[in-house]
């Protein structure tokens, strides 16, 4: 008994109202039945619009037998593969099931197959046929011309629908079928939108959705290291949903940016595809084009690229609508070369090949479109009223598929058969549940097959499909994602073909070595907005386009911490050669072989040799009058200071450690302190003697050698006390000064190993010695009038004047180079040479004349006659007066007068002799 449709059980929406009106007219449509094709080639065949196969259970079928027609006509040219191959696959699968004793035994499947003409609105009209049996018919207002009530043809009751192909068609049809609870299994619709189980709850498919395909394409793009791509979609659910899924995945995963997302209109105007190519060229760096487009649009976009001389520029990544089809690339192989395409994993069904090759006009009359296929396939015309115009040859009817024409199984044949088998397995499960042990259809299934119950059985099926791959559905009715990845390659023989280069099953497996770009070129092309930054460069991302950036080198002491940041190296480190990390700054010190060290060491060694020679000479001639008159004790103290001034050079150049730094603190100022303390004591003694002589003839106190030593070492002890306080406050240690040679170029940066002696500490250490030197200079100036016959005041004066000049030159050189990169070398060399020159001046002016007399003029090294303190003071006074008169007399008169005065003074003195050392000034 037929089920009666109750209008109140369905929502009264405008779409439903439209359906009611449409179906009311559909009642009056005659049911198309297979038309017998005449065997007479001269007879005109009659073409119908549907195929009907009788059976106990009727399945609906939707196939794009014809392409979309031009404006005003719903249907266009016949589709040999996507139309005829697929619908024949459905009929072949039904034949196999009906012959299978294990699957639906004693039950035959029938079919009602319709042509969608690749247009969703036309398919909607055609699919009304599937719901006619579920609508209650009211003929009370309809009467025949003779007054009799109308006789309605009983429509077939469709329990399930196989199809459609295009996603847009499936979406349109699914909206109707769900209202009448008719399950639908598609063999080619892949739009992600159809996975929404709340809107398309009666829809299932044996092909994976484009969300899997989009993920596979994203994995391909990532594997090719492309991060800047454009998308191109045919207007409609398939193209737009596929691109939207790809864009969504790119946002979630990151790393891939969409340069442009273009859409191909359903009804493109002339020049539309050339305009699309020009727009894609606006972002020429985005060479990879992700395409979710139908077969016709793919062919026309390739043709436009060829017309615009862009062969080899674009890197096409096509969806399963391109797959491994030949039709889109015929005549434009070069522009399609290198295209990567994706196709659900499939295999050719050999049994279908044998079946289809055996089809002829005589044995395939159930296919109402087969005659049209025959004309198209063999390029001939059936009789005078054949569909194909022109003066073509007439068909004989003896042609054979595959022998007289090319033949290759269409890619979705496997899925069409799997969809039919899925429906059959679900019906078989339902039969076992409702009609267990009953042969054929039991009343419960014969009267009504509940669509919702059948859907639950469809979702639960699991079997090996026609190609040996498992057929299962998830909770949304989707098949698992399994894809083969192809590349369109031109071989060395100039033949083009699709080659399998990988697969995707939840994960990409790509054989990059098998890929070819342009003829014979294995290198990977680029599709990036910006080239990768080199090592040591950071990315400065363009706002809003994370895949586009400018490369900025990490400058100075910065290194590349991450892809987008540069960070400053620690103070004691510098960037490595690639600026990807930091390495320790090399540590240097003043080396002995450096020119900055060789010169002061050479001077110091000469000075030490000369000083040692003087000391040895003085020790050897220790009791001679000149040595005794020089003040032996003070001379040895002074020579010790001179020796230390030379020796400090070696400490200043030696590798710093705690011991060296300790000795530097002690001896840096000690040598000068010894020298100038002794000279100060001498000059002070001379000054006191002559100042005292102006007042009385009594000798001043503390002029004996012992007193002089006490005074000298008292002055030296102040220096040592300061050094010991310095040791207590700040123990000596070494430091590495990274700021002294921290140049702008990190490769020239060096850390200087040095003692922890600041410039201020150095000045404080030398300050006391400089104070002694200045004081000594003052006394030398005061005693400059003492006759050279009686004292060393003048040589000491010249020594101090020269020393002051040396140290006045030292100060600006030392502090003026504090910012120089060669600071360590310049300052150390300047200091050591200044100390050596000071010592050399003292040694040369005070002791070399004496050594010269001792060694080369021993006749002058004889005792002088003793002079009393009074005589000495009187001579000094007269010398002062004569000096004043000398300003008014010619040169030489002063000396004559002084000589005469000296002779007079000498003649009045007793001729007794005393030690020169005791009274010599």
From TrEMBL:
One of its GO terms (cellular component) is plasma membrane. PROSITE patterns: G_PROTEIN_RECEP_F3_1, G_PROTEIN_RECEP_F3_3, G_PROTEIN_RECEP_F3_4. Keywords: Cell membrane, Disulfide bond, G-protein coupled receptor, Glycoprotein, Membrane, Receptor, Signal, Transducer, Transmembrane, Transmembrane helix. InterPro entries: ANF_lig-bd_rcpt, GPCR_3, GPCR_3_9-Cys_dom, GPCR_3_9-Cys_sf, GPCR_3_C, GPCR_3_CS, GPCR_3_mGluR4, GPCR_3_mtglu_rcpt. The keyword Oxidoreductase does not apply. Residues 596-870 form the G-protein coupled receptors family 3 profile domain. It is found in: Cell membrane. The keyword Acetylation does not apply. CDD domains: PBP1_mGluR_groupIII (cd06376). The chain crosses the membrane at residues 596-616, 636-656, 662-681, 702-729, 760-781, 793-815, 835-857. It comes from the Eukaryota. GO terms for molecular function: G protein-coupled receptor activity. It is a multi-pass membrane protein. Belongs to the G-protein coupled receptor 3 family. This is Glutamate metabotropic receptor 8. It comes from Seriola dumerili.
């Amino acid at each position: 008994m037929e089920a009666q449709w109750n209008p109140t059980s369905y929502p009264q929406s405008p779409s439903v109202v439209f359906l009611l009106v449409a179906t009311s007219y559909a009642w009056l449509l005659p049911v198309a039945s297979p038309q017998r094709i005449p065997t007479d080639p001269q007879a005109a065949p009659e073409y119908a619009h549907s195929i009907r196969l009788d059976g106990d259970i009727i399945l609906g079928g939707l196939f794009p037998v014809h392409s979309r027609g031009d404006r005003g006509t719903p249907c266009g040219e016949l589709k040999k593969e996507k139309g005829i191959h697929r619908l024949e696959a459905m009929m072949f699968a039904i034949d196999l099931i009906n012959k299978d004793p294990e699957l639906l035994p004693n039950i035959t499947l029938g079919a009602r197959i319709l042509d969608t003409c690749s247009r969703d609105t036309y398919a909607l009209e055609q699919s009304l046929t599937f719901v006619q049996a579920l609508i209650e018919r009211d003929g009370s207002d309809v009467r025949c011309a003779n007054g009799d009530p109308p006789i309605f043809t009983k429509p077939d009751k469709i329990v399930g629908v196989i199809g459609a192909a295009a996603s847009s068609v499936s979406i349109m049809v699914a909206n109707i079928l769900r209202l009448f609870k008719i399950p639908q299994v598609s063999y080619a619709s892949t739009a992600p939108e159809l996975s929404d189980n709340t809107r398309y709850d009666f829809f299932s498919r044996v092909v994976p959705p484009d969300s899997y395909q989009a993920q596979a394409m994203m994995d391909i793009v990532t594997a090719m290291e492309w991060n800047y791509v454009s998308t191109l979609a045919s207007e409609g659910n398939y193209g737009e949903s596929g691109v939207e899924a790809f864009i969504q995945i790119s946002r979630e995963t990151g790393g891939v940016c969409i340069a442009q997302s273009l859409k191909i209109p359903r009804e493109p105007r002339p020049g539309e595809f050339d305009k699309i190519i020009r727009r894609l060229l606006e972002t020429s760096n985005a060479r990879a084009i992700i395409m979710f487009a139908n077969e016709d649009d793919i062919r026309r976009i390739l043709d436009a690229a060829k017309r615009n001389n862009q062969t080899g520029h674009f890197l096409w990544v096509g969806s399963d609508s391109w797959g491994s089809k030949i039709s889109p690339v015929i005549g434009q192989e070069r522009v399609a070369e290198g295209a990567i395409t994706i196709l659900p994993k499939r295999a050719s069904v050999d049994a279908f090949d044998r079946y289809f090759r055996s089809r002829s006009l005589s044995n395939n009359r159930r296919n109402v479109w087969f005659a049209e296929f025959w004309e198209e396939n063999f390029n001939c015309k059936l009789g005078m009223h054949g569909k194909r115009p022109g003066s073509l040859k007439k068909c004989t009817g003896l042609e054979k598929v595959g022998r007289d024409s090319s033949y290759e199984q269409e890619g979705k044949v496997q899925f069409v058969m799997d969809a039919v088998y899925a429906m059959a397995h679900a019906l078989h499960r339902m039969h076992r549940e409702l009609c267990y042990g009953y042969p054929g259809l039991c009343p419960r299934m014969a009267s009504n097959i509940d669509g919702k119950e059948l859907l639950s059985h469809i979702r639960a099926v699991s079997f090996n499909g026609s190609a040996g791959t498992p057929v299962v559905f998830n909770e949304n009715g989707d098949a698992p994602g399994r894809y083969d990845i192809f590349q369109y390659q031109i071989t060395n023989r100039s033949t083009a073909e699709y080659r399998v280069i990988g697969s995707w099953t939840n994960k990409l497996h790509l054989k990059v070595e098998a890929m070819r770009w342009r003829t014979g070129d294995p290198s990977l092309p680029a599709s990036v907005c910006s080239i990768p930054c080199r090592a040591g460069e950071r990315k400065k991302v363009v706002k809003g386009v994370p895949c586009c950036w400018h490369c900025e080198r990490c400058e100075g002491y910065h290194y590349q911490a991450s892809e987008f940041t540069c960070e400053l190296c620690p103070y004691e480190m510098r960037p490595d050669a690639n600026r990807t990390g930091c390495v320790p700054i090399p540590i240097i010190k003043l080396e002995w072989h450096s020119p900055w060290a060789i010169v002061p060491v050479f001077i110091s060694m000469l000075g030490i040799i000369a000083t040692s020679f003087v000391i040895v000479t003085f020790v050897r001639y220790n009791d001679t009058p000149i040595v005794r008159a020089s003040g032996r004790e003070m001379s040895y103290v002074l020579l010790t200071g001179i020796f230390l001034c030379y020796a400090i050079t070696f400490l200043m150049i030696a590798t710093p450690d705690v011991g060296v730094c300790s000795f530097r603190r002690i001896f840096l100022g000690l040598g000068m302190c010894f020298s100038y303390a002794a000279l100060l004591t001498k000059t002070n003694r001379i000054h006191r003697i002559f100042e005292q002589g102006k007042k009385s003839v009594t000798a001043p106190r503390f002029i004996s050698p012992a007193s002089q030593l006490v005074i000298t070492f008292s002055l030296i002890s102040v220096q040592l006390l300061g050094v010991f306080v310095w040791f207590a406050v700040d123990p000596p240690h070494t430091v590495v000064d990274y700021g002294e040679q921290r140049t702008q170029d990190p490769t020239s940066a060096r850390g200087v190993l040095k003692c922890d002696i600041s410039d201020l500490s150095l000045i404080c250490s030398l300050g006391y010695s400089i104070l002694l030197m200045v004081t000594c200079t003052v006394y030398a100036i005061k005693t400059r009038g003492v006759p050279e016959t009686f004292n060393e005041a003048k040589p000491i004066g010249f020594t101090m004047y020269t020393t002051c000049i040396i140290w006045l030159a030292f100060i600006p050189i030392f502090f003026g180079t504090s910012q120089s990169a060669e600071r360590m070398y310049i300052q150390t060399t300047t200091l050591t040479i200044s100390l050596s020159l000071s010592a050399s001046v003292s040694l040369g002016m005070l002791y070399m004349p004496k050594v010269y007399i001792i060694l080369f003029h021993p006749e002058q090294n004889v005792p002088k006659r003793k002079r009393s303190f009074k005589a000495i003071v009187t001579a000094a006074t007269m010398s002062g007066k004569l000096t004043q008169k000398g300003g008014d007399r010619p040169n030489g008169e002063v000396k004559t007068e002084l000589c005469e005065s000296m002779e007079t003074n000498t003649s009045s003195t007793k001729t007794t002799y005393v030690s020169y050392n005791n009274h010599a000034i």
